[in-house]
User: What shape does this take?
Amino acid sequence: MTVSPPATDFSTDLALALRLADAADAQSLPRFDAPDLEVSRKADRTHVTDADLATERAIREILSTERPDDGILGEEYGTEGDARRQWIIDPIDGTANFLRGVPLWGTMIALAVDGVPQVGVVSMPALGRRWWASAGGGSWTATDAGPRRIVVSGVDSLDDASVSFQSIAQWSDAGKLPELLALADRVWRDRAYGDIFSYMLLAEGRIDMVAEFDVKEYDIAAAVPIVREAGGRMTAFDGTETLSSLSALATNGILHDPFLSLFRDVQRS
Assistant: This one.
């Protein structure tokens, strides 16, 4: 999946994606912190809840009616169709948080055209927050006063940067623990805000970098247009313009190359 879009009007698709998020919230939020929540494990030993399954089904049902010719890639029900237009769905990003009653989870909905994410919506109903973007249309979030356009920070020094590294275990499993320690030593502030919320904090200019490993396309696709339209940059951890390498590095754009240089210096040492 590449990350540089052509200029096209996706307003109709964005409107649909926002309605899909409404339908998703109607499924997921009533099940959050529910005493009878059903939890099981998938073949890869990760958790799945009845809310994950119901939320993805609700999205797919709408798409089957309104976009029958489009393809779908969802975390829970896999790939459907083989179209150049593909909806990419993570019904509940942060399932571990969801099942423990931690409100940092959300639904991610993206539309990719020829492998490029062009529309992205992230809804975190337990926080009462939503973000969205489409190619050429800017990045936005909902507020009590109405939609507000968001932009990344203008921080231009690693020494002043605030970063989210997701988890120590993730970096260790990827063999990147030396890079994480070097990062923590260099920047002003390091925290693990976790999952999709980190990318939304980046797009709002509240932090300056997010990096994670072992990610699938549905884990990250919706964040791509939101970060990009806010003025940020997203690549794989090695700097390539793809998100198919199971890693992601998102920054405010200004600091992208300095972060890559920092990581490369560690790898050479």
About this structure: The first strand starts at residue 39 and ends at 41. The radius of gyration is 18 Å. Residues 3-7 have pLDDT under 50 and may be disordered. The chain has two domains: 11-127, 158-268.
